[in-house]
Amino acid sequence: VDRHLRRCWRVPDDLPDPERLVVTIAFQVGRNGALTGQPRVISPRNYTFDPPMAEAVNRAMRAVRQCDPYDILSEDPVVGEHYEMWREQEVTFGRRQR
């Protein structure tokens, strides 16, 4: 999933202090690999008054939505049949995602 998301993720190098802009997003996918429900921010807990962090969160959420569907999971011959193991995803976005 991380590799799949890299093509949709816009690294926050253009924002102030980019190494601190680390965002963790949780989301669920259906058996067909499509998002179910809304992705949610796990970390940071509060970013309302931090414009660069808010932008990093927006970029992470956008990446999760733009990369939908995650059919790489449902079509994988090893994990495809183990839906209960991959239906919930948690991904951390940051500079090291490159």
Mean pLDDT: 86
Tally the helices: 4
- Report the C-alpha radius of gyration, rounded: 14 Å
Overall form: elongated
> Order of SSEs, N→C?
HEEHHHE
What structural category do the secondary elements indicate?
Answer: alpha+beta
Distance between the termini: 14 Å
Report the major sheet. Answer: 3 strands, antiparallel
| Strand order in the largest sheet | 2-1-3
- Uncertain spans, ≥5 residues at pLDDT below 50? none
Helix content: 25-40%
**How many runs of DSSP E, i.e. beta strands?**
3
**Strand content bin:** 15-25%
What does this structure look like?
The protein has a three-stranded antiparallel sheet. The chain contains four helices and three strands. It is α+β, with helices and mostly antiparallel strands and 98 residues long. Helix content is 30%, strand content 22%. The protein is elongated and about 45 Å long. The protein starts with a helix and ends in a 5-residue tail after the last strand. The mean pLDDT is 86.
